[in-house]
Amino acid sequence: MVSFLLRRLVALLPVLALVLVIVFSLVRIIPGDPAVTLLGPGATNEQIAALRLQLGLDRPAAFQFFDYVGGLLQGNLGTSLKTGNGVLQEILIRLPATLELSICATLLAILIGIPIGVLSATWPNSGLDHVTRVVSLLGVSMPAFLLALILQLIFATYLGWLPVSGRISPYVATPTVTGFATLDGVINGDFGAMWSAVQHLVLPTVVLAAFLATTLGRFVRNTMLDVMTEDYIRTARAKGLSRSSVILHHGLRNSLLPAITITGLKFAEMLGGAILTETIFAWPGVGRFMFEAIKNRDYPVIQGTTLIFALLFMATSLLVDLLYGVLDPRVRRKMQ
Amino acid sequence: MKLFRLFAGATLALPLMLNAAHAQASDPLKTLVIAVPSDPDNLEPGTNKAEPVGSEVILNVFDTLVAWTPPDFTKLEGRLAESWTVSPDGTTFGFKLREGVKFHDGTAFDADAVKFSIERTKASNPYVEATFGLIRDIAVVSPTELKISLSKPYPAFLSILAQPQSAIVSPAAVKKFGDQFASNPVGTGPFVFKSYQADTNVVLESNPNYFLGAPKLSRIIYRIIPDASTRRLELENGGVDIVQQQGQLSSIAAEDIQALKGNPNVSVLEAPSQIIRQLEFNNNNPNSPVADIRVRRAIVHAIDYEGLLTGVFGGTAERVYGPLTSNSWAFNPKIKETAPKYDPELSKRLLAEAGVDPARLNFKLYSFQGALWGAVATFVQANLADIGINATIEQTQFPAYRALQTAGRFDVALDGRQPWYNDPDAHITIGYLSSLADSAMTFRMPKEDALDALILKAQQTVAQEERKGLYFQVQEEIAKRVPAAYLFSPKLIVFQRSNVKGLVINSAPPLNEYRGVYKE
User: Fold this and answer.
1) N- to C-terminal Cα distance for chain A?
2) Is the pLDDT higher at B97 or at A300?
3) Distance between terminal CA atoms of chain B?
4) Which of A197, B133, B408, B510 minimizes the number of CB atoms within 10 Å of its CB?
């Protein structure tokens, strides 16, 4: 088990190096440099040259690369050209918002998707199955921005139950402790703040969860239909086990492996930034930060965020592999 | 079902129970929430690059020596300066400063602080190099008197001193915070900087000791909302009080503006801007088909200016007649009469006169990106097609577009300028002086000593009336050369909840002060 983990971790290093080289050169190949973009159309060549000098962009790219790698080895991700703050610091400020949203969305998707999959598989081609099929199709095919807009119109504008956007009401002031708005409210004993944070969390969570929940539902249904025709299910039934025990312990458990892969990868993707959802809901997360950085050609930020996302992605897929081991004794044996 | 009812009940009851707590945190009637599309670039004069959000925060947290007087912004008034004098040769500016003003940190404002601030910005801010570079010396005569001398006459310097880059900072705070001053800006302004959360908000609180009287609001919150439709929903829902139409190149669709105008909870403020958008010719390439003035005249008469304003902009933009907008103090009314009129028949005759077969003119019509620019480009393309000219639209990413424009690799292009200070100099000198042709996105005027001399004379003349007369001449001379078809000037539009009162829109640059704003 430990050697499996070590091997996997060592294998990450060349991947990371490759990501680094690709991103470093790609951002410089996109036309336009940050000094031009930051100063806008009114600027003179003189102003641009002065800013390039100030930002160190006048140095040859190779030098910039070695400086960057040197910094990385010392744990320094560089400085944002736009804000002048450390890239790591900027990412850490925004990570809690993204984590809070991704975790809630993933939990919601699991809570909705798996039961729906199980129910649809238990009564295939029933009315319920048809309904979930249509809803799933909608959930998978509807673009996030459209779903977001519809939800905003219904729940914020017409019903007035939930806020349109943001992470907490601007009128609420509660000190930041962990960066998780809901948790901070509880820690500070400010339940008004907590409630406001929860209300703000609902719509973006639903939008982000919709795709995953519907995909999960379909996946679980299909794998479970296959599993339920297996011999061991017949054996379990023949032993006289209750129906729920057959479905949940023997059927579901064996149908979960593909679902875990999807959930894991999708979760990693959410961490890498649900750019659209974060933009529409004015959610101060990492995805939006990276998107702005690309628009502004903020090289160090693009490099830093890509690197961190690559790491998170690899860590999640490693975690998924380990979970396989937990769920499936055959995989566990292979790992050892 | 029972569970659902319980949940719904809780959802409805909890906010009511918690409202009391909210009110304590911040009184909504004393708090103004402003939606802005992006984070401020920085919040201090020493590094400000005229980016709109940060610039507006600076103007509300700091003061400048002078400022433009509302509501028409054609005259300067004293702020931290009580009065000022300009030497006859236009190189020395003497200021008598206001007494008894204190920075937010309690330290006193005086002539040393002015000298410190201006020298600091001069050293740290490349954006103002061309203008602050003219400063030869700043002499503190007494704590309330100061003289700034320039290396050459530059009357528009007073207008530069009204800009956010010229705001006066607290020397003690700069010393205390060092390079963290941008996160802890301290000025003398009507609002005190409270906090900035990246991608979330900037919070300002009122300065009860402000020397022109305490603001009516107790707090301003700038909420950063990147998506235009979210900003609109927030405004309609009352989640924000003000949405500004900022942005050099972007604007919301005319339909949205019409829809908001019909909403009784929202009022729409409009003001003319000094932004100019034009279809410009490459005036510096003798091999281009547009080197022939008859071709240029044919094109400027082919544009249906009124149709563009109503069809594409639905009344949210105004006509521009020449190199300056009609709200500039130096605008020459004669230009309005002589401006080209839509006359496609005349265009065809002019082309025939020039011996040009329009079918052989295949233009690439370059433009910035974005839906609005796309609509303008399509409109112009159709106008050109009416006189037989074929144009292909090339909406180009900004950095690439800038590169090809400044290198002169185009015949016709959609371009524009938003002046960052209130003076005709901001449009004329950079736009039309031939020695600056390649230095920025300009009209690329060919070398012509007489016109260059006239532009520089207008720039450097001190007496306002004489200067105005010179700019009148400059406008006529430029118009004669037909360097562009001047298309439109977008209006500055601010949407506000109907209970917000007292806001006056500043036109150049579009940065607003909130000292007199209140909510009913």
Assistant:
1) 5
2) B97
3) 42
4) B133
Residues 6+ apart with CB under 8 A from A63: none
What pLDDT score does B20 carry?
38
Tell me which CATH homologous superfamily contains domain B276-490: Dipeptide-binding Protein; Domain 3 (3.10.105.10)
Inter-chain CB proximity A282 and B226 less than 8 Å:
yes
Q: Which of A61-75, B56-70, B349-363 has the lowest mean pLDDT?
A: A61-75
Per DSSP, the three-state class of B146 is: strand
Domain ranges of chain A: 94-283
Contacts of A260 (CB under 8 A, 6+ apart): A320, A323, A324, A327
- The 3-state DSSP class for residue A110 equals helix
Domain ranges of chain B: 3-247+494-519, 276-490
Specify the CATH superfamily of domain A94-283.
Answer: MetI-like (1.10.3720.10)
**Phi, psi of A72, rounded to the nearest 5 degrees:** -60, -45
Amino acid at B377: A
Which CATH number describes the domain made up of B3-247+494-519?
Answer: 3.40.190.10
Measured between CB atoms, does B473 come within 8 Å of chain A?
no
Q: What is the ipTM of this complex?
A: 0.85
Nearest-CA distance from A274 to chain B in Å? Answer: 14
What pTM value is reported for the model?
0.87
- Tell me: pLDDT of A215 over 80: yes
Confidence of residue A97 (pLDDT cuts 50, 70, 90): very high
CB–CB of A41 and B402 under 8 A? yes
